[in-house]
Amino acid sequence: MSQSTVANRYAQAIFKLASQQNLLSEVGADLKEIKEVLASNDEFMALLTAPKISADRKKELIAQILTGAQSIVVNMVQFLIEKKRLNELSAVAEQFQALAAAAQGAADAKVFSTRELTEQERAEISVAFGKLVGKETLNITNIIDASLIGGVRVQIGNYIFDSTVASKLEDLKKVLVG
Length: 178
Description:
Layout: H1 5-20, H2 24-40, H3 42-49, H4 55-65, H5 71-82, H6 89-103, E1 106-113, H7 119-132, E2 137-144, E3 152-156, E4 159-162, H8 165-177
Parallel strand pairs: 1-2
Antiparallel strand pairs: 1-3, 3-4
């Protein structure tokens, strides 16, 4: 997660606005979608940061592209364009997700496994590991990693719970080799 002070401030401001208007989930969904687009489409970010395009034109483009998004999100992206802080957009989205999850008694978790988890496995992991970190639920992102051999590794914030076969073999190696 980003440690940017600027991103934290913007995320807290947007979180406050979304909370006051009871739009946490809607704003969160919009920011998540924007973050996914930024991660998968380099041309989009290149367009928004192109120095030859004026800030006003970029704001117009954002207003056209984000027609279905909440006005809070559109205004925030336009504000970041105006302040030349668009590089902080993904970090703002991440921090907002963390704030919203905490307010709703949830946390984001990355679960590394050798295969896609079923809904039942996700629910069981959510309950079991949620209790360990004091959260009611976990928003699980499943990441496939064949090098684990078996088991799962769960990362929730700064906590990492590793019960993979690979880590157990490494521990055994340390004991046997010394």
